[in-house]
Design goal:
With 562 residues, the chain is mainly α. It contains 25 helices and eight strands.
Length: 562
């Protein structure tokens, strides 16, 4: 029996009047379920086994020596589930064998996908933390409507969902840097001992997650201080005693930050530089001998003394610096470079972000900037400035490996989009426009499930592989689908150029042969799009063959006649 119209209206009103945090919780729970549903669909992406292995070393062996280019927090979170389930670390692993050793621990328990899923679920709390902070922050600044808008945008963005479902450092870094930025806003708005201690804790978590947090926070803090100075009220500190108090708060915050970072490295004490690294790469600070008058040998004795707390942090930063200096093979718009492009991240962001998010977020950046100056509210232009500063900082990097490296821009842009909230309430037309845009994004996100990683918006066209590959499209995630396809086609002989950290023979039978340099085999031939696009001299001959079958979103399968 149909419900009377009056009762239907009352039901709709009761749903709409439900407390805002109930809607936020519902949005977050739905996103968590969607993320969890993907964890056992895909095998490992390229970097996951190495991250899990390093986290297991921290948990099981009490050391952190395999690779120091990434701090331990996200890796430990990813390794915690497998470790509690009985997975053992691999003694003696190093940064050369860490992918093979990582595969060893994933297969050791006899249930590969379960172990991998447990690792991936360890990243979920970072995603939830970012969503909760975003909703609370948007509600405080822009009201209930703003909180709902921001939460919908973040929880339905395929790129965010993709990296929230992987045992890597990217979602964890985005969440902790976002939280650290929020704590710095609180310090500048309401300086006190409590806010400085909170900021010290939050910044420490960001530093323990990924070293890219250092430049990102380093460019955001001056932006906040600049707009606070231009538009904010005068600081209440009038005499030397007040400034001494502030200095004490800063010292306490820095001490708290340093202590947490040291604790994250198990209160390790050791050298700042390792002799083997200096022998291989040279002394990393050539200006110090000129300034101090000390010889390099004398300085090496100082830097190699095993007395420094958390020496891994400096060594890790130096590794990242060396990696950035030497560059990394990357692909964009048909070009291949070792040192990247200044426009890589703007292009990647433009094609990997849903168009409704782009429209709402980018329009809101300009709006909050202008509104902040009109209302003399320093927080609004500072928010826009932080998002722009992070993008500008990333554009200077030589390592162009995917939009995942600027994932923190998404919660910042969602927060900016929340500024539309106060204008939505009195305007029926604006309500309709915003509802249509959010509905468009939600529908597109649902259609992408479970393939969040290779998602591209309509700007990319039918062949996104002509724009980006690697972790934006092909990170080795379709190997299980490819194995099912080879079984269905009853393929008996296969050549396969796979872009992944796992031997495809683990799942693909019969064991495929690689495509040797200069070889153009006939019969069944498959190639991952990353290999195809990044190594055209070896695999480019396949581009002229049609038709081909696209397995998943990342592997082309050809049948080439004799």
């Amino acid at each position: 029996m149909d419900q009377p119209k009056d009762e239907q209206r009352a039901t709709r009103r009761s749903l709409l009047n439900r407390p805002w945090h109930s809607w936020v919780r519902l949005l977050i729970v739905v996103a968590m379920v969607r993320i969890a549903l993907t964890t056992m669909v895909f095998p490992q992406t390229y970097d996951e086994p190495a991250h899990i292995l390093c986290g297991l070393e921290w948990l099981g062996l009490g050391s952190y020596t395999i690779e120091e280019q990434h701090p331990p927090l996200a890796r430990v979170a990813a390794a915690l589930g497998p470790y509690l389930a009985g997975t053992e670390p691999v003694p003696g692993a190093d940064n050369v064998t860490m992918w093979a050793d990582g595969n060893q621990v994933l297969f050791a328990g006899g249930n590969y996908l379960l172990t991998l899923s447990l690792a991936r679920l360890g990243i979920l709390p970072f995603f939830v933390s970012a969503c909760i902070l975003l909703a609370a922050w948007a509600k405080r600044w822009f009201g209930v409507e703003g909180a709902i808008i921001a939460t919908v945008l973040l929880t339905t963005t395929p790129t965010v969902l993709a990296h929230a479902s992987l045992a890597t450092t990217d979602m964890a870094s985005a969440a902790t840097v976002f939280i650290a930025i929020g704590s710095l806003f609180a310090v500048i708005a309401r300086p006190s001992l409590k806010t400085f201690i909170t900021a010290g804790c939050c910044v420490a978590l960001a530093l323990l997650t990924k070293f890219s947090s250092i430049p990102f926070l380093a460019v955001c803090l001056p932006v906040m201080l600049l707009f606070r100075w231009l538009l904010g009220p005068a600081m209440p500190w009038r005499n030397a005693a007040d400034w001494r108090k502030v200095g004490q708060w800063v010292a306490v915050g820095l001490a708290v930050c340093g202590l947490i970072v040291w604790a994250g490295l198990r209160f390790s004490v050791g050298p700042l530089l390792l002799p083997a690294d200096v022998a291989a790469k040279g002394f990393p600070f050539p200006s110090i001998p000129k300034v101090t008058g000390l010889s390099q040998d004398e300085l090496m004795q100082i830097f190699e003394a095993p007395v420094y707390p958390a020496g891994e942090m400096l060594r890790g930063v130096l590794e990242v610096h060396e990696h950035n200096h030497s560059g990394h093979r990357s692909y964009l718009l048909g070009e291949i470079r070792m040192h990247g492009w200044w426009y890589f991240f703007p292009v990647a962001f433009a094609v990997k972000t849903p168009i409704p998010f782009l429209l709402l977020g980018l329009a809101s950046l300009g709006m909050v900037f202008v509104t902040g100056f009109r209302q003399r509210d320093w927080r609004l232009p500072a928010l826009a400035g932080c998002a722009v500063a992070i993008m500008a900082c990333a554009m200077t990097a030589n390592i162009n490996l995917g939009v995942r490296h600027i994932l923190v821009i998404y919660p910042l842009l969602a927060l900016a989009a929340a500024s539309i909230g106060p204008a939505v309430r009195p305007s029926k037309k604006l309500k309709v426009v915003v509802a249509l845009l959010l509905g468009w994004q939600t529908l597109e996100s649902l259609q992408a499930h479970p393939d969040y990683l290779p998602y591209f918006n309509q700007f990319a066209g039918d062949h996104p592989e002509n724009i980006l590959v690697g972790s934006d499209l092909d990170w080795g995630q379709d190997l299980l689908r490819f194995a099912e396809t080879t079984r269905a086609l009853k393929i008996e002989k296969l050549h396969f150029a796979y872009s992944g950290s796992l031997n495809p023979a683990v799942f693909v039978s019969p064991e495929p042969a690689d495509i040797a340099a200069g070889e153009q085999p006939s019969g069944w031939v498959a190639v991952s799009l990353t290999r195809l696009k990044q190594y055209p001299a070896r695999y480019g001959w396949l581009e002229s063959y049609e038709p081909y079958m696209l397995v998943g979103n990342s592997i082309r399968l050809y049948y080439i006649p004799e």
